[in-house]
Amino acid sequence: MEKETVLNVGFDDTDSPKGMCTTFLAYKIVNLLQKQKTEFLDFPRLIRFNPNIPWKTRGNGAVSFKIKTKDPSKTKNQIKNLVLKYSDVINGANPGLVFFENDYIPSEFASFSNLALWQLINRSNAKKFAKKNNLEIFYQGNGQGLIGAIGAIGYSFHDHTLELLSYRKKSKFGKARKLSTKSVKIMQEKTFPYTFNSFDSKKGRILITPHGPDPVFYGVRGENIDSLIRATKILKSDEKLDGYMIFKSNQGTADHLKNELNLENMKPYASGRITGIVSNSPKIVKGGHVFFKILSKNHEFWCAVYKPTGISTDASNLITGDEICVGGGVRKASKNFPRIINLEFLDIINLKKNIVQSNPLCKKCNKRMKSKGYNQGFECIRCGNKYSEKVTIEIPRKIKKQLYLPKVSAHRHLTRPLQRIGTVNKATKFDKSLPWFCVYEN
Ligand code: ATP
Q: In this structure, are 192 and 213 located in the same domain?
């Protein structure tokens, strides 16, 4: 029998804001390989990396897959040609394509991938990594795409979600997407909690359709294949689609916020979390954005909570001494502000009692007394009752000991939605008979 090679393929940075999409390229590659009866050993993987890097097109996603092939050089050439054909280099894409022939992925790959989730990786480090680990690489432009391409192969799942991405026919690229709003609402209700972030019920807005010119019609995210397929049957549209593909992903896992930020690793564009004590009174600036400081391991860090997150009012109700854990991305210092963490979650661990000194209450009239002047005591203006000193009172807190997440329309791809808190999905086993890929016959 002819020997078969296990081939891992990773690629990234094939698209630009003007068009195309790395997942669509994956769909095209898989289509070709499926026609040749290539054996897939797992779902295609859609891995989201550090969402705070400045040069991402949209959601910093990269794709990889693992196949068995009898003719690795032919397969690699075919993939390379498709990457060349579908990459939008003219409009600024810097595609990276990586081949790694091995069934086992060494732990160094997972370490590289883990770092790409929350820190900034230098392009030359990706090239060095490829050389050291015998990766076959191919790139255009500056080769930035190699980072995501290596990371997508190296990523090791602890929890996962799935996304069913459906693609449009070429004649529809760039045209408005018409999908029944009601059907998305019903789909979300019927498939909850096995799908997530499809519909913003507060605003009545569809969340599964992109707005740009890319080939994606919609993407439904969830926990298992059955729920995703069921969801597509509930969704209603007159548009004839080209097909769909289901990716295994780290979306919805909050993977980028699991590392503790500190003075050394809190570099611009890093993502992570800090646990500490609120160390000043939050300031609300024009536009409703809120800024406060957190003290952690003897250092103070500025935090920003922007109005569109929907949790700025909650943040404004923090007081000095509250114990919290915050997660987000580090914004580089500006003229007016030092390095600052843009919050993606606020978890209140302990609320300090809000004790303040206040004028005494008249026991007879139940009214606050008036001060008679410095050191001259207090008097009730109604009945003349007197009292000599201020009293301490506890003001009820307006926030609770709980996790505050941005509203669903402000979620990032990696944000762990409330319904997934405490969920670890390890269940999806790959089996080639599963309906994970489909090109419609019409
Ligand atoms: P889309 O979501 O539409 O696929 P995108 O938002 O993923 O687009 P890309 O065009 O892929 O955007 O750009 C992201 C670039 O950043 C890629 O070149 C990727 O290799 C690189 N990259 C990813 N993670 C890091 C990181 N941690 N440090 C440095 N570069 C990174």
A: yes
**Whether residue 113 sits in one domain with residue 10:** yes
- 388 within 8 A of 376, measured Cβ to Cβ: no
Protein residue whose Cα sits closest to atom 2 of ligand 1? 59
For residue 153, the CA-to-ligand 1 centroid distance in Å is 14
Domain count along the chain: 4
Residues 288 and 322 in one domain: yes
CA of 59 to the centre of ligand 1 (A): 8
Lowest mean pLDDT among 143-152, 178-187, 210-219: 210-219
CA 53/CA 70 separation, integer angstroms: 38
Same domain, 344 and 285: yes
Q: Are residues 268 and 405 in the same domain?
A: yes
Mutate to test the pocket of ligand 1, among 20, 53, 90, 138 (most ligand atoms within 8 A of CB): 53
In sequence order, the 6+-apart residues with CB closer than 8 A to the CB of 91 are: 16, 17, 18, 19
**How does pLDDT run across 78-136, given as a tens digit for each residue?**
999 999 998 888 888 899 999 999 999 999 999 999 999 999 999 999 999 999 999 99
Q: What is the pLDDT of residues 17-55, one digit of tens each?
A: 776 789 999 999 999 999 999 999 999 999 999 999 988
pTM assigned to the model: 0.94
Identify the CATH number of the domain in which residue 45 sits.
Answer: 3.30.70.2200
Residue 232: Cβ within 10 Å count: 15
Kindly list the distances between the CA atom of residue 338 and the CA atoms of 221, 319, 343, in Å, as whole numbers in the listed order. 37, 21, 15
Tokens read off for 432: 């080639």
What separation in Å is there between the alpha carbon of 109 and the centre of ligand 1?
17
User: Final residue of a domain: which of 156, 183, 212?
Assistant: 156
What type of residue is 376? Q
120 Cα nearest atom in ligand 1: 28
Assigned domain for 429 exists? no
- Residues with C-beta less than 6 Å from any ligand 1 atom: 12-13, 15, 21-22, 49-50, 53, 55-61, 94, 96, 116, 119-121, 144-145, 147-148
